[in-house]
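Before going further, learn to read the protein records used in this course. The integers have meaning only within a learned vocabulary of local backbone shapes. The record below shows the convention in full.
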Amino acid sequence: KERQRGTQRSQRSSGFSHAGMYYPPGSARARMCVEGAARLYTYCEEKGIPHRRAGKLIVATDAVEQQRLEALFDRGCTNQVPGLELVSVDRMKEIEPLVEGVGAIWSPNTGIVDFQAVAQSYAADVSAMGGKVSCGFEVVTTTVGEDGVTVTSRDGRTVSAAKLITCAGLHSDRIAAQGTAPGGLRAAAQPQIVPFRGTWLTLKPEFVGMVRTNIYPVP
């Protein structure tokens, strides 16, 4: 619905390429996260998109968290997350000298990517392959029929296709719910966006060297 590409969630995310240790083994999210991260890095290298495999430490601060950390490590190994390590305090300090904890998972394949640049590049790829990227197309109705899906914009334009993939950010659940006519999503399968508020802080230039990598708590 925006007038430009990549101005909402793509621009306002943390820019993380996650490695895939959080998701239930065997799930689509686990498989797609691991495979998707590998493909994303390859794509960024081919297209010259800014990215950095900065890695991530998931740090346990006590014995209870350490147990959960080890379970998370086992899950990550089952999901075949590349390069995952369960590290000691000494190894943790080598990676991030100022961090405090009793142990950590080191994920060297976690990285940071300029996702706005990725979105712009994807749009250019679509156009190069003969597709069309329509900005300012706010979807107000989605009609599911035997021959496919038709979406209608607020100003009356329509697009029809055999299949519809929604990447509508915070509006994804609303768009998906529009397609619950016969042949659409089952009511039980309707996704729901659960918003939460995060806080980001920017270090002063003289303190930037205090942190080398990304540091996360045990979930």
About this structure: Residues 117-189 form one domain. The chain has two domains: 15-114, 117-189.
